[in-house]
Each structure stands twice: as structure tokens, then as C-alpha cells.
Design goal:
It is a single chain. By secondary structure, the chain is of the alpha/beta class. Helix content is 48%, strand content 11%. An 8-stranded parallel beta sheet has the order 1-8-7-6-5-4-3-2.
Length: 324
């Protein structure tokens, strides 16, 4: 009997219900391949590749290194040339696509017609319900403990996921602060059918970020203001989300000024902020989105395979204790 089989593993084809999160500046096949090969679902982030041609190359690179399933993330408010990116995804036979940051049903329905599974990532139960109505195959809900773009309506996973499970029929995937076997088992116990991990995979050997950032995460603590304030007292509000939606509708310089005006956290360097949205500056992304509260359970740098194995081994030990 496959004890880790859920509707998500059956639908998406991976061995374990563990999905790698998307990464704006460095979400390439370098990490995605390792995660998929280890039994999870690796993720390529289209925005990190910038162009359809580079996305095509990276998809082919991943497929040449593993025959396991993988996903591509389309960040709706940031990714340029979405139509062309979707063409590449369909033509290259990508099995799973995650949309995020804005409703993705226009592309989701097109992808589903091509036989691709469509999952949508949200920060609130309201938007998760909308994704179900729009026809998503599954939904990722990021709790307040997670990093990335925030909503004032976001809930901690401990209450948000059970509440979502009581209302939503499609499979729910939970992210935010999960990085070890305890968080993994808690997510499944709450009714989620897979976990979605970003920060934990940032610290893996295959992740293409500088080693000093991995060490900051390993040594980090949820009580450290760098992590606590960015996640539990977020500066990114509803006004910020509305500014993100304007990208491409006004000149870039105007957009960046408006974006800056919504941010009250004084430590964000303006040039790095600009680099994050206009270039592929890894350090800019890490300055802006340093990591989730999962830093509390990360204690060393491992390979993606070692991380996944440690979670599953620990989870099996927890199951045995529960059975007693």
C-alpha cells in the first residue's frame, strides 16, 4: 500500500505529496530536476527565464535529466509574453502548470484543453473558492507563515486550511512555514493533500543562490525581524496588490515609483527593488523576499533528495507513534 498516495499525487504523478515552490529570480531546472527526481514535483518559474526561448531550453534541459513529472509556474502579473510562454508549455508537453498572483482561468482552460493539469496558487480562502469555480484542478493556499506577496485577508495555515477543507471540493495544497516532517504531517492531518515548500528548498545544494544566503536561512529564527516582520507584519497590502496588477499598463518608471510608494519597510533598497522587477538579479529577490518562517525548522544545507527523504522518514516515524 502506498501510504503517501493522495488525490494530488495521483493527479500530478509524483511519488510524495511534496511540491517545490516557484522562485522569481532563480526558479530554473537546476533545482526543479533534483526535486522531481527525488519523488516530489519540481517547478520551473517562467518569470525567471524571461523569454519563451529560454523557457523552452530549460524545459528541455529538465526533461533530458529526468522522466519524472514537473511543473511550470506562470506568475500572471509579472511574466512577460504569457501567450508565447503558454505556447511553449503546450508544445513542450509540460504536464502541470501553476498560475499565481492573479486569476489564471483564461490560460488555465487553454492548458486543460491541451491535457495539462492546472493548479492555481492563492493567499486567501476567498480566492481559493474562486479558483475552484474557475475550474482549477487543485489549489495551493499559502498561509500567513509563508513568504511572497501578502494579503490583509491571509490566515495562518492552522485555521485557514481546515476552514478551506470544509468548503472546497478540489484538492488543497498548503504552503507557508513548512520545512520538516512535523509540518508535513500537520498539513495532511488538517486535510491538505500535498505540501508546497519554498524556503526549505532554498537551502538545498542544488538551489542556484549564493551559499551565504543559504547559511542565513540555516541560522535564521522566526523571531528574527528579517523573517518575522516580513511575514507576520507584512508591508505589502491590498494597495500593493493593485499596483502589481498595473504592471504593463503604465510606463515602467511610473510603475516603480507607484510600487515604491506602497512599501513602508525602510530597509528595502530602491535599486535592488528595481533590479528585481526589471532584471534577473538574484540578490535583489533575496533581499525583498528573504524566506518564510520555515527557517525555524531548517538546520543544515542538504541535497533536495536528502531533504525529501528526511521529511518522509520523519513522517513515517510520526505515523508509527500515532498508531500506538
Amino acid at each position: 500500500m502506498d501510504i503517501w498516495k493522495t488525490r494530488v499525487t495521483e493527479m500530478l504523478g509524483m511519488k510524495y505529496p511534496i511540491i517545490q515552490g516557484s522562485f522569481g529570480g532563480f526558479g530554473t531546472s537546476a533545482l526543479g530536476t533534483a526535486v522531481s527526481e527525488a519523488g516530489g514535483l519540481g517547478m520551473i518559474t517562467a518569470y525567471a527565464l524571461k523569454t519563451p526561448e529560454r523557457l523552452r531550453e530549460d524545459i528541455r534541459r529538465l526533461k533530458s535529466r529526468t522522466d519524472k513529472p514537473f511543473a511550470v509556474n506562470l506568475t500572471m502579473t509579472l511574466t512577460a509574453g504569457l501567450d508565447e510562454m503558454v505556447d511553449v508549455i503546450i508544445n513542450e508537453g509540460v504536464p502541470v502548470v501553476e498560475t499565481s498572483a492573479y486569476r489564471g482561468d483564461v490560460y488555465g482552460k487553454r492548458l486543460q484543453k491541451a491535457g495539462i493539469k492546472w493548479i492555481h496558487k492563492v493567499a486567501t480562502i476567498k480566492h481559493a473558492l474562486a479558483a475552484e469555480v474557475h475550474g482549477a484542478d487543485a489549489v495551493v493556499i499559502i498561509g500567513l507563515e509563508g513568504t511572497g506577496f501578502k494579503s490583509p485577508m491571509q490566515l495562518p495555515s492552522l485555521i485557514g486550511i481546515p476552514w478551506a477543507v470544509s468548503q472546497i471540493k478540489i484538492p488543497i495544497i498548503v504552503g507557508g512555514g513548512i520545512g520538516d516532517s512535523h509540518g508535513f504531517m500537520a498539513a495532511l492531518a488538517m486535510g491538505a493533500e500535498a505540501v508546497y515548500m519554498g524556503t526549505a528548498f532554498l537551502t538545498t545544494k542544488e538551489c542556484p543562490i549564493p551559499d551565504r544566503y543559504k547559511q542565513i536561512l540555516v541560522e535564521g529564527s522566526p523571531s528574527d525581524p528579517r523573517f518575522r516582520d516580513r511575514n507576520l507584519a507584512p508591508t505589502k497590502t491590498e494597495a500593493y496588490a493593485k499596483v502589481l496588477e498595473k504592471r504593463g499598463t503604465i510606463p515602467d518608471d511610473e510603475w516603480l515609483v507607484e510600487l515604491e510608494a506602497t512599501l513602508t519597510h525602510g530597509s528595502i533598497d530602491k535599486e535592488k527593488l528595481k533590479a528585481m522587477f526589471q532584471g534577473d538579479e538574484i540578490e535583489a529577490v533575496l533581499e525583498f523576499v528573504p524566506g518564510s518562517l520555515a527557517v525555524g525548522v531548517i538546520d543544515r544545507v542538504m541535497t533536495a533528495k536528502e531533504l525529501i527523504e528526511s521529511i518522509i522518514t520523519g513522517a513515517e516515524a510520526i505515523r508509527k507513534r500515532w498508531s500506538i
